[in-house]
Each structure stands twice: as C-alpha cells, then as structure tokens.
Design brief:
This protein is of the alpha/beta class. The protein folds into three domains: 118 residues, Udp-n-acetylmuramoylalanyl-d-glutamate--2,6- Diaminopimelate Ligase, Chain: A, domain 1 (3-Layer(aba) Sandwich), CATH 3.40.1390; 107 residues, 3-Layer(aba) Sandwich (Udp-n-acetylmuramoylalanyl-d-glutamate--2,6- Diaminopimelate Ligase, Chain: A, domain 1), CATH 3.40.1390.30; 99 residues, 2-Layer Sandwich (Alpha-Beta Plaits). The chain is built from eleven helices and 15 strands. The radius of gyration is 25 Å and the shape is globular. The relative contact order is 0.15. The mean pLDDT is 95.
C-alpha cells in the first residue's frame, strides 16, 4: 500500500488543516510513493521507536506527538530529535504525526477516547474552534439545481450539527455575455443573455473546501461558474479543544478520584479540593490543558482532568472545580489504542502494530 493512501485515510480521521498554528502534524519523513509494509503506532517518535519499527519490520511510524516542532537548521545528531530523523531517513522509515488535529476532533478524537475510558455520556466540545466553516453560494440554472446541490451534499457540504443536507435556495435572474472564445451553455456569443437561476447556499467544513468545490464544478453545466466562498465566524460543533460530558451516576470526590486512577491507569493524581459533595459533570483535555480551566468552569464542570498543570494554575479551581492532573503521557496513552483500532478497521489484513516501547520520560519515586 502506498504511503499517500495511508496518510489520506489518516487525514479523514483528523484533517491536518484543523491543527493549531504552533503544531507540525502531517508527514515528517517519507516519500509519498513508497510502499508501506507495516505500521507501528506510538505516542511519540523517538530513537527507541524507530529501532522497534526496524526490528518489527514496519517502515511507517504513526505517532501522536511530532518529533519536529520547528525548523531544523542543522541535522548532525547533536540531540534526540536530529538522531531520530537521521535514523528514520537512513532506514527508509516514514514518520507521520497526528497531534492537535486529533485533539480537535470530537468523533474518534483523543478526548473522546478519554471520555470512553471514564464512561462519560452526552459529550460535546468544551471550546469550539472558529474559522473552520465556510459558506458556499453558487448560481445554477433552475433545472440543474438538484443535481448541483446533491453533488455538494455528497462531497460533505451542508452539515450543521447532527443534521445534513442543510441549505437554502432562492430564485433570481442571472446575466452574462459570452466572449469570442467562449462556448456558453445557453445564449449566443457576443449577446447579453438573461437566465432564470437558483442561488444555492450551504455551509462547508473548511478542510473539505477543495473536495466540495470540485464536485460542484463537475456537476455544474456552465462553462464559467459564478460562486462565492466566505469564511464564517460560526464555531464548529465538532471541532475544538477539550470535551465535557456526564458520568452515568454522581460520585463522591474520593470515589471519583479512585475511578479516574483505575480507569486512566495513572500512578498518581495531583488534584485540588472542592466544595461539591458529588462529581457529575466532567471536562477533559488530553495533554497540556491548563488553558481550558476557565472553559471548564464556565461549562459547569465539577471536575477537570488533564495534564501539565502548574502550581499557580491549581488555584484557579477556587474550590468550585476539582482540577485533576493525571500526567501528560497518562492522559494521552490510549491514543495509541485509538489509532491502532482505526487503522486496523480501515486497512484490514494489514500489519498495524501497537508499540511495546514506553516513551514516557517521567518516572515516579514512591
């Protein structure tokens, strides 16, 4: 199977276009036309992971964290990043990172996986992401309205929340005059033509812009198609940071902590006290999530589970929100399981292996 076929499948799960600006998700090493013989899934891409991939005859590593976050001016092996890249290239190992784009999707995302481990229901994005939705408006001859609209819908346009095929149509009259080299669908060259037209308006996910526009152009009968694309400030219901949901039944703070420790397989939890007698609404964010503490409080969460909380940030709980720091690695460790299951389902009868290497750089002394 070609590398570009696998990266295309991963892009369907989490489009690279929705990653954060500081991130470096996507293909880091590898030729898109190379044949992939096996995939090793891991949280990090380190030297040890590349060694494991070589030993287990996998020439592709799919990792959550990018090994390269910023440009490398020299690659001479002076640090673990450069040594990993050198080893991967010398051994023809492709490295693909699927990071904040996988954090930012609701369905099959990092935070949804955490929610499943905790048994949360009625989940929704905690901080919805803006600038992820476009509005497409196109003018079509009335008799071609349905075929063009169907093409847009089939390509992924017209989704609002849990509804699909959403759109608006209005009637009007279009005008055009074909030039000397034109081949107009209706009317004659050099003559002004008036045509009864329907205006179709639909919302389009930004990452599907090219797919939707190409489908619309293919279905449209005009030689030159008049259409508009506008970036909307509407926030997507399915893209953004963090997640909030409800426990199946309220738990006391002590019982809640015991459940989290067991289900998330963490050695230790750093947490704040709370004046609440029970925990019911729970917010989560895999990795470093201190930036969402205010969002968790505003959403009415009783507890917030994440990693990498600093000392002074714990005070932001103010006894109203139980902040639980379970560790960066621990909060994201089940992402490996998520990726393996997704790829195994999409590419059956293909070697997708779960890493046997523990890449957590943090140790605990009891």
């Amino acid at each position: 199977m070609k590398l570009h076929q696998i990266t295309s499948i991963l892009s369907e799960l989490a489009p690279p276009s929705i990653q954060e600006s500081y991130d470096n998700a996507g293909l880091i090493t590898g030729n898109n036309e190379m044949d992939v013989t096996g995939i090793l899934v891991s949280l990090d891409a380190t030297e040890a992971i590349i060694d494991e991939a070589i030993a287990r005859k996998c020439n592709m590593v799919v990792a959550h964290h990018p090994i390269v976050f910023k440009g490398l001016k020299q690659i001479n092996g002076k640090n673990y990043v450069e040594r990993t890249i050198i080893k991967a290239i010398k051994n023809d190992i492709a490295i693909y990172a699927i990071h904040t784009n996988l954090d930012n999707v609701l369905e099959n995302g990092v935070n949804q996986k955490i929610a499943q481990k905790l048994g949360l229901t009625n989940t929704q994005i905690l901080a919805k992401k803006s600038e992820t939705v476009l509005k497409l408006a196109v003018y079509v001859p009335r008799e071609h309205m349905e075929s063009v609209r169907d093409a847009i819908f089939n390509a992924g346009g017209g989704h609002i929340g849990d509804c699909d095929q959403c759109g608006f149509v209005s009637e009007g009259t279009g005008s055009f005059r074909g030039g000397e080299n034109a081949n107009p669908f209706v009317g004659n060259k050099g003559e002004l033509h008036l045509e009864p037209e329907t205006k179709i308006e639909v919302v389009v996910p930004a990452h599907l812009q090219d797919k939707v526009v190409n489908a619309m152009l293919k279905a449209h009968p005009y030689e030159e198609v008049a259409f508009d694309l506008h970036l909307l400030q509407n926030k997507s219901l399915h893209v953004g940071a963090g997640l909030i949901g409800s426990l199946s039944k309220p738990l006391t703070p002590d019982a809640f902590l015991k459940m989290v420790k067991l289900n998330m397989q963490t050695a230790v939890i750093r947490y704040t006290n709370t004046n609440r007698n029970t925990i019911s609404r729970v917010a989560v964010c895999g990795g470093s999530g201190s930036f969402l503490i205010k969002n968790a409080k505003a959403a009415g969460a009783d507890a917030y589970i994440t990693g990498d909380i600093k000392y002074h940030e714990f005070f932001d709980g103010e006894n109203e929100l139980m902040i639980c720091d379970i560790g960066h690695f621990e909060s994201e460790q089940f992402t490996i399981e998520l990726l393996r299951d997704f790829l195994s389902e999409k590419i059956p009868n293909f070697a997708v292996l779960f890493t046997e290497t523990d890449t957590n750089p943090v140790n605990y002394f009891y």
